[in-house]
Amino acid sequence: MRKLSFLGLLVSLVLVSTPVVQSQEAASKSMHYVIDFKRLSYYLELDDCQKGEVYEINSFFMEQQEAYLSGNMSPKVLEKNWNYVLYCNLKLMKAALTEKQYAKYLRVLNLTENNRMLAASVETANKDAGLIVMVSNK
Asked: pLDDT by residue (tens digit) across 53-99?
């Protein structure tokens, strides 16, 4: 009887968690980098003059990411477009930030990319093992 109740609990947990995982997958596929401007501004120690310009660059970057992922393109074309969007953002940020701030910005992007790749590899490994994992982005 205990095994049956445990099995019922496990099945209900899987059914409840599946939409959460699917919605997170959809969110990660819809946008490569989601940048919180308030945190970025604090981390980079932006002055008042830089805040407006960096906010515009950040908004443009988010729009470009949506446009980059919004079509049925081959992986090669998607990669080429992503590289264009990323390098365009880096060029704009380099012009707007000091050398020290730009180095910090590069660290943030690098860390974000490493985390994204790690999450993707864990997700792939879990799918291969037949597991469903709930991930919190807090």
From this structure: 999 999 999 899 888 877 777 888 888 888 899 999 999 999 999 99
Angle between helices 37-44 and 99-129 (to 10 degrees): 130
Q: Which of 8, 46, 27, 44 is nearest to 123 (CA)?
A: 27
Tallying the residues shown for the chain, one arrives at 138
Written as one letter, the residue type at 21 is V
Is 136 in a helix, a strand, or coil?
Answer: coil
C-alpha to C-alpha distance for 77 and 94, rounded to whole angstroms:
26
DSSP code of residue 57: H
- Running DSSP on this structure, what letter comes out for residue 35? -
